Amino acid sequence: MRKTTNSPVVRRLTAAAVALGSCLALAGPAGSAGAAPADPVPTVFFGDSYTANFGIAPVNNQDSERGWCFQATDNYPAVATRRLADKGITLDVQSDVSCGGALIHHFWEKQELPFGAGEVPPQQDALKQDTQLTVGSMGGNTLGFNRILKQCSDELRKPSLLPGDPVDGDEPAAKCGEFFETGDGKQWLDGQFEQVGGELEELLDRIGYFAPAAKRVLVGYPRLVPEDTTKCLTAAPGQTQLPFADIPQDALPVLDQIQKRLNDAMKKAAADAEGGVDFVDLYASTGTNTACDGADRGIGGLLEDSQLDLLGTKIPWYAHPNDKGRDIQAKQVADKVEQVLNR
User: Fold this and answer.
1) Which of 30, 99, 197, 243 has the largest count of CB atoms under 10 Å?
2) pLDDT tens figures, 13-31
């Protein structure tokens, strides 16, 4: 049985830790309200491939097993840190442990890397008693978004680097919209959302427990599908594949509703967390930069070549932020962190 922080005893400890952190902050040197912190802010970034910015080259730790996390050297944590420095806010980045493929429980359990490349320790191991800021996102992999995409695409069901199997391989991809709205597909999806909500609660509790002085920022996911799905019937400039490959158009609004539901679940977890957690609502601010927005897209198409290659073969974006999308993430996160630190 895995260790959990959901017991009443640990909840009381968490509340006490958060209160202690608040008292320490109140006991610190007086300063003007709204002033940027004078000293570097010890910071930990955590998360999955959307924090690591899978698809953007080069990647960190290429000579170790962590290279299989596909963490971009210039991921949004790095870019946001530079943006904040330009505003006189210095983050002392203690660690960026974001790793592609991470599920929420990899915050407190080790993560096995692909192809037997090894493992990385739980992301919470990066937290320290003096950590003052934590930023990141998890949830999409626990929900099973890759499996959802594979349920809707014959192309994605072919062998690839994209992990996971379709939810029900016996159901045709062409009927995936109906599958997720009725019967077994809906029941599976409801169960996944219940798991996501519970594990996000535990993740945020754990940050409060292991880094009691830290301000917590949970980052949502950028919007993938636009409101007007007819835009998805045209390939982006220079591309031959449609943004969502062979996923049927009538399934795209269903995918968008699933993503919105995930965004709402993350927002609720942040709002309900004891001690307060701030939320960066990327879904709400990226509706004109979806995978189907052509030259303005902030999301690389499912089968569009990313900047990465493996043994001379380009790896697709698999609907992850490109450079433009990464910069949007970085700006939104930097703005939120500045707001949080200037309170």
Assistant:
1) 243
2) 444 444 444 443 433 333 3
